[in-house]
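Reminder to self: tokens first, then the designed residues, so the page reads top to bottom the way the pipeline ran.
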């Protein structure tokens, strides 16, 4: 039933507070069915504030995030709505859940009882308080710092989030050989690597070419020589993964070329990871220009982790070439180019759509070029 219809039926029988509660639960169940279908099947699941489910991991990302971890004991020090704790409980014999908000704490505790999850210890406290009182060792400690201020604005800097990982990272590594930290996709990876001690791996997790999570794994192993970066782009049954080492990227060289028969655009996870030279070298591709991040080849490379386009034409005379595209449906991409896609569409009267692409970019000769492509089906 639509919540508006429900609210209008016999309103004199319902208090305003009760109606708000019902509508909040209805909205929560709608979000839950999209984010966590496994829980949505259980009719006893209840929700708190909708922001709690909005900030939570999805079932898809949580499954992949913890797929390589297992052991006797783990701790989720920023439990929130409990989705990450739930999937940790499938991998570890015992999990400790921490959440300082008493109302959310009771909601999650109820939901875990409804889901018959029996291997979770619940602690209504902050991560800092838990660590101060703790004497146990863990196989994994997981944190997803709160990235919203008291005024609900989004936070990006590590020191602004709660808990502040800069202050407690030594304590975390004292209690566990592995610490996994989830951060916003907006975070600068290089800045984070300078901030976090003992980082051994960074994972960039994307869903349908939209980066959802950055995951930093810290270790108390003092023999760390290089950092690995792994990228994962999930789209239905298609999984694109690419791994490289930080030193590999720094030492890699790449050839440059004008657009050849095929053009390649790395997926969003690779772009966020900064594997701009490694991905080209690994697949034997030349680059259009240093900062354009398009790659090209004479022969098709089918397993490239990203979009593959067939080049039809490349020209420096964009205005002349665009005359035949007036009022036509075409996808517009602008990278390392002074005008944004929406400006280009308006200027040249282009409509969005179809399997054809107009790519505005700059080549290795520092010339502005237009590449006309079709989707390689």
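Designed residues (377 positions):
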């Amino acid at each position: 039933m639509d919540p508006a219809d429900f609210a209008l039926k016999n309103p004199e029988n319902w208090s305003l507070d009760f109606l708000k509660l019902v509508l909040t639960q209805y909205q929560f169940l709608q979000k839950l069915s999209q984010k966590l279908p496994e829980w949505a099947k259980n009719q006893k699941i209840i929700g708190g504030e909708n922001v709690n489910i909005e900030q939570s991991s999805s079932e898809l990302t949580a499954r992949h995030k913890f797929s390589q971890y297992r052991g006797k004991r783990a701790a989720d020090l920023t439990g929130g709505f409990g989705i990450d704790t739930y999937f940790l409980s499938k991998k570890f014999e015992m999990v400790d859940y921490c959440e300082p908000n008493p109302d959310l704490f009771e909601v999650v505790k109820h939901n875990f009882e409804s889901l018959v999850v029996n291997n979770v210890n619940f602690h209504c406290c902050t991560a800092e308080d838990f660590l101060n009182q703790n004497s146990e060792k863990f196989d994994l400690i997981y944190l997803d710092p709160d990235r919203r201020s008291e005024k609900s604005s989004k936070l990006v800097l590590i020191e602004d989030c709660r808990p502040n990982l800069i202050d407690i990272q030594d304590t975390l590594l004292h209690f566990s050989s592995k610490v996994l930290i989830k951060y916003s996709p907006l975070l600068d990876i290089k800045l984070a690597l300078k901030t976090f001690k003992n980082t051994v791996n960074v994972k960039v997790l994307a869903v349908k070419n939209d980066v959802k999570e950055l995951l930093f794994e810290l270790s108390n192993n003092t023999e760390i020589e290089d950092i690995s970066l792994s990228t994962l782009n999930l789209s239905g049954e298609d999984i694109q993964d690419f791994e490289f080492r930080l030193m590999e990227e720094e030492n890699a060289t790449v050839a440059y070329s004008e657009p050849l028969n095929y053009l390649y655009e790395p997926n969003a996870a690779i772009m966020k990871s900064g594997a701009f030279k490694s991905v080209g070298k690994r697949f034997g591709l030349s680059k259009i220009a240093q900062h354009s991040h398009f790659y090209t080849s004479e022969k098709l490379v089918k397993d490239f982790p990203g979009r593959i386009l067939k080049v039809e034409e490349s020209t420096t005379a964009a205005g002349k070439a665009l005359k035949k595209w007036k009022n036509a449906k075409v996808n517009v991409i602008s990278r390392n180019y002074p005008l944004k896609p929406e400006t280009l569409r308006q200027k040249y009267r282009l409509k969005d759509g179809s399997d054809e692409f107009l790519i505005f970019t700059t080549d290795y000769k520092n010339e502005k070029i237009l590449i006309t492509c079709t989707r390689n089906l």
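The chain has a mean pLDDT of 88.
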